[in-house]
Write a structure and sequence with these properties.
This protein is α/β, with parallel strands linked by helices. It is 44% helix and 15% strand. The longest helix is centred in the middle third of the chain and has 21 residues. The chain is globular and about 45 Å long.
Length: 241
């Protein structure tokens, strides 16, 4: 049976991706740090689809947390077909106010965790038939947004990691990214903020977590000749100035 690991699986994009992969026939290792209630709910939902589910709680800002996730996967399988690096943090802070601790935590979770978690699981990926890695990047990794300097830097690094690993781990392991734009607004956005963003989206609507999940399924199951590519899942927003 094919096995997938999803980080940040308890809510939003991670939850939708978990359910999509379960419906596609994957057994799952699901990670969360704080969203443990959501992790429990999505585990139960995936189990009703007949999948074998394993969960792990870990702080991916630490090397111990990354190793804890890797150790959990190694304890339940000898091969790994899919990793979806979805876990991440998003923080609005003026550049001059960003502390070294905030910067380091942002890079640790958004960039270093995918880097070293994949590294730790390479033997299991290489043992799989057609392994695939997906990075959840962001339009903010390509276009500067005021007050998100440390976030933008982390996602720009993840874009480069996608391309680097697609080259270095080829031909057996494929590595791609999905770059959401206006998908699943933060809960604290006002109606005015939402309307302002949607005016810049040619598709005329907010994206959904399910839009992202469908792209994950396409990349891991239906696109065997696609690697080193980042899908802009943004309703056309990046196509215009």
């Amino acid at each position: 049976m094919a096995l997938a690991l999803i980080t940040g699986a308890g809510v939003r994009l991670g939850r939708a991706t978990t359910l999509a992969l379960a419906e596609a026939g994957y057994d799952l290792v699901l990670h969360a740090n704080r969203s443990l209630a959501g992790l429990s709910e999505v585990r139960d939902a995936a189990e009703t689809l007949g999948r074998a589910i394993h969960t792990v709680q870990a702080d991916l800002s630490t090397s111990e947390g990354v190793e804890n996730v890797a150790a959990t996967v190694r304890s339940v399988a000898t091969s790994l077909d899919v990793i979806v690096h979805n876990a991440g943090i998003f923080e609005r802070v003026a550049y001059e106010a960003i502390t070294r601790e905030q910067y380091r935590t942002m890079q640790a979770i958004n960039l270093e965790a995918p880097f070293f978690l994949t590294q730790a699981l390479l033997p299991l990926l290489r043992a799989a038939h057609a392994p695939s890695i997906i990075h959840l990047t962001d339009i903010g990794g390509e276009r500067a947004v005021s007050r998100y300097a440390h976030y933008g830097v982390s996602k720009a690094g993840l874009l480069m990691l996608t391309r680097q690993l697609a080259v270095e781990l080829a031909p057996h392991i494929r590595v791609n990214g999905i770059s959401p734009g206006t998908v699943a607004f933060p809960e604290d956005y006002t109606e005015e903020q939402r309307a302002s963003l949607l005016r810049r989206v040619p598709a005329g609507r907010e994206g959904t977590p399910e839009d992202v999940a469908r792209a994950v399924i396409f990349l891991v199951r239906d696109a065997p000749y696609v690697t080193g590519h980042v899908i802009a899942l943004d309703g056309g927003r990046s196509a215009q100035l």
